[in-house]
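ok posting inputs for the zinc ion job
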Amino acid sequence: MDCIFCKIANGEIPSATLYEDEDFRVMLDIGPASFGHALILPKKHYADIYELPDELASRVMVLAKKVAGALKQALKLEGLNLLQNNGSLAGQTVYHFHLHLIPRYQGDEVGLTWKPGELQDKDREVIIEKVTALL
Ligand code: AMP
Ligand code: ZN
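and the output
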């Protein structure tokens, strides 16, 4: 399999690494949305959140918390978004699970907002019925 993030995560291709342990690498995004935009990726290949094992899923959030704190302190950011895209429609371009940490600054041009809709009664019922049955 020819996956660029596998090669980066395992050190075959150099990256701007902020942190590394046995299971994860944290690096700067090559096309940053803002100053300090970082990515957390597991060293093993999982295409997306659906494939990610529970144990790594929980540890990735603990690591995100640690990196978020370091970014906040080091870069004097004013906000921070966590973003994780699954599927091309959601903006995923690299099919190796990764979590974005996107620092926010006054006046930046990071566009992660949407126009809020209104939760309709019929939608609420359908969604609750279908999804709760699977959880
Ligand atoms: P996504 O659109 O969620 O799949 O995010 C992929 C991200 O990976 C984008 O923000 C890219 O800028 C970033 N990216 C792609 N190739 C590299 C690379 N070689 N090193 C660092 N970041 C990369
Ligand atoms: Zn991979």
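notes: The pocket of adenosine monophosphate (ligand 1) is lined by residues 4, 8, 15, 27, 29-31, 85, 91-94 (CB under 6 Å). The chain has three helices and five strands.
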